[in-house]
Amino acid sequence: MCGIVGAVAKSDVLPLLLDGLKRLEYRGYDSAGIAVINDRNQISRTRSAGKIAELEKALSCSGAMPGTTGIAHTRWATHGPPTEINAHPHMSGQNLALVCNGIIENHEMLRQAQRRNGIEFASETDTEVIVNEIQQHIDRGLDLLAAVMETVAVLEGAYAIGVVSTNEPNRLVGARRGSPLVVGIGEGESYIASDMSALISVTRDFFILENGDIVDIHDGNIAIVDQSGRPQFRDRKTSRLTAEAIALGEHRHYMAKEIHEQGAAIANTLDNRITGTRLLEECFGAGAAAIFDETRSIQIIACGTSYYAGLVARHWFEEFGVPCQVEIASEFHSRHHAVPDGCLTVTLSQSGETIDTLSALALTRELGYMNSLTICNVPESSLVRESDLVLMTHAGPEIGVASTKAFTTQLTALRLLVIALGRRFGMTETDEARLIKELRELPAKVEAALTLEPAIMEIAGQFSDKHHALFLGRGAHYPIALEGALKLKEISYIHAEAYPAGELKHGPLALVDNEMPVISVAPNDRLLNKLKGNIEEVRARGGKLIVFADPHARIYDQENLQVIHVAPVDSSIAPIIFAIPLQMLAYHVGLIKGTDIDKPRNLAKSVTVE
Ligand code: F6R
Question: Are the C-beta atoms of 419 and 440 separated by less than 8 Å?
Fold first, then answer.
């Protein structure tokens, strides 16, 4: 996690660094800091606990920070609490400053060795050992680049770093392993950042660093080398991100903007991928047809909301006879694997940088899983680069920490994969035509679901003083209940749990009383009658229910039962539609509670630590 940005610029670098930090704040926001090599060739450093707004206040008190070379950081704490002392940049003496996104796994060992060399530590972070290590090499006479090369050779873990030194004031060295780092190419200026969006106001042209790359920005030149100094050649990429796509516009929060963008995002995800009543299989990339022909089963791997998309999709794949396993990426390592023949790995990720998903993908390769496909929202991400096949969700940048449009576009993309694989498992053209028709109707159904917002705002008022909530669903809607509970937890800090509705009587029913709101989704599917029975079990015990129901489900308001009718929708795509009122519910409860909706406490958007 954490965001880093750095530059060697023609004019004062501070505004550029601050702008970059604000665009990276989604990656972590518990403390922040900036270091600039000033016009007296000294490092000026300002850090503060809290969000970037706090850093700006500290900067306005500390006065001007002139200088054309600098680095900056927004933190998601791992080692050491989010205090000013632990905020980056970290320094060794007065001449060297460093920012890092990642975790140094052998920091304890390095720390002990450095202590034996008489080095004293100023912070509790793992990062400080890196800056000390570099300093030791500079003290032996190495220049900054050589010192970084020596240092990364001893680091274990995943990291992206940026370093500046007053010995070489127009130089900035960056390095990455595991955590992302891009190099921005400006007009007579060069930059580094954790992602392209950080630099979008200054450049559209980038090099994307690969694992093990070290970038040396020096006197207007950019050189990329490996750990041994061998030149590395990376293609120049032009970002298609626009400033408008990442602007808040008329909305109060990115989460609200992104909820309301879902109709258009789904339409974009389908664009050029279906024609008439058919899927255009080429959308999965060259070689996809041959890989699909060999596929006998799939293994979905993802985290958080993306994992829940996988759980929904399992129902969809199995309906057409495609065997499907779904696993939380961080758990994939924790068991032994009997690798099935012809098993296609499918990773799901908004960011494409989630380290748990990336390392699970690497493990599938070691274990001999067949091929991999990623469904991802960030084109230049590590997951996209490391997968055999790619299906982009064209959701546009998702900035709110709580995932919304990424989820519904992942589900849409998964429907396309259901067709591609279903064709190999006996799906008929009539089935395919039906699925395509449903997909074409999706954007309009999403818009209809969004019209429920006023009713949801009223209901949200009932939650603001609650401490717990239960979410219920059955079949493909159990993961939707999980997603609804996750959204409510993240945004409102209300403890929420989701259960398959049939599981309540096996224990959780003991929690139900009139202080426990119970939220259920009730599509008009073959599980409806059983769900109705479960709803009655809750009512019989005095539980207060809120049910989002298809009108054809014939569930109506009664004592302790409030119903919000969601426009009728085919049961197979209903999970996509029923997710939307639950997103809006979480948003409006968060709004009433006054939480920081786009940056909920303790979280970050891109989870690049294991
Ligand atoms: C929840 C949320 C997270 C992410 C998870 C995976 O709202 O956003 O649970 O879904 O961290 O992230 P990606 O999809 O980027 O791999």
Answer: no
pLDDT tens-digit series, residues 418-436? 999 999 999 999 999 999 9
Tell me the pLDDT tens digit for each residue of 274-296: 999 999 999 998 899 999 999 99
What domains, with CATH codes, occur in the chain? Answer: 3-246 (3.60.20.10), 248-449 (3.40.50.10490), 451-610 (3.40.50.10490)
Strand pairing category for 190-193 and 90-92:
unpaired
Quote the CA–CA distance of 9 and 128 in Å, as a whole number: 26
Whether pTM > 0.70 for this model: the answer is yes
129-152 pLDDT, tens digit each = 999 999 999 999 999 999 999 999
Query: What mean pLDDT is predicted for residues 334-355?
Result: 94
Which atom from ligand 1 is nearest to the alpha carbon of 605? Answer: 8
51 is catalytic: no
Does the beta carbon of 395 sit less than 6 angstroms from any atom of ligand 1? no
Whether the Cβ atoms of residue 503 and residue 463 lie closer than 8 Å to each other: no
Told to judge if 283 belongs to the known catalytic residues of this protein, a careful annotator would answer no
Ligand 1 in contact with 381 (CB < 6 A)? no
Is 404 touching ligand 1 by the criterion CB < 6 Å? no
Q: Report helix, strand or coil for 320.
A: coil
Give the C-alpha separation, 249 to 180, whole Å.
28
Compute the distance from residue 605 Cα to the ligand 1 centre, in Å: 7
